[in-house]
Amino acid sequence: MIFDRNPRARDYKVSQLVAAIRASLESNWQPYDHIAQLQKQWPAVRPRISRDYLSHTTRTALGARGPVVECGSGLTTILLGLVAERTGIPVMTFEHDPIHHQRIKATLEINHIRSVEILHAPLVPYGDYDWYDVSQVSLPNHIRLIVCNGPPQQLTSGGRYGMWPLLESHMEPQCKILLDDYHQTSERLVTEKWSRRGQLQVESFGRMSPFAEITCLN
Questions:
Q1: What is the pTM of this model?
Q2: In terms of CB atoms within 10 Å, which of 67, 124, 139, 155 comes out highest?
Q3: How large is the angle between the packed helices 7-26 and 98-110, nearest 10 degrees?
Q4: SS3 for the chain, per residue?
């Protein structure tokens, strides 16, 4: 775990790096080095996501031509918000943990990132699986990118399976899904279950902590 023990000092460093990434995106530069530094400064309250996944998420979001939905909040939320400033795409994020939701929301506010709609959505049962409660949410149509970092596997029945049945009707053809932790058997099993509902093209990236880019072909 690498972060400054002084929260104010850490927040200041995070804000400096957020500003640097914002400037890079405005100048059409690839901010990989800044993202790597930001990942080191980010408090590891959850398992740390690889910098390759963070960079890939940023690049993919820059190319999205429609709404982005994020399952689970964290450092990816900050990066998606900075991309949305640049491109104008809407970003909706679901977070089940009220404390983490407030923490990310405060970080967005401190860094003047107003382009993310971050929603507290508790986990609820949907028959044979659990997922975020979206019963009162107006989901975006024509979703072009889903960043699937949650909900945590250990808290849900059926793992992350619920993403597909609940978002499928809102997904645009050729919608991409970024799925972290693809080295875990549970994530591969979820992908296989999704494949029974639609035709998918799966490409895996990374060596130390592989992740997947899944394209919906129908």
A1: 0.94
A2: 67
A3: 60
A4: CCCCCCHHHHHHHHHHHHHHHHHHHHCCCCCHHHHHHHHHHCCCCCCCCCHHHHHHHHHHHHCCCCCEEEECCCHHHHHHHHHHHHHCCCEEEEECCHHHHHHHHHHHHHCCCCCEEEEECCEEECCCCEEECCCCCCCCCCEEEEEECCCCHHHCCCCCCCHHHHHHHHEEEEEEEEECCCCCHHHHHHHHHHHCCCCEEEEEECCCCCEEEEEECC
Contact yes or no for 131/166 (Cβ under 8 A) = yes
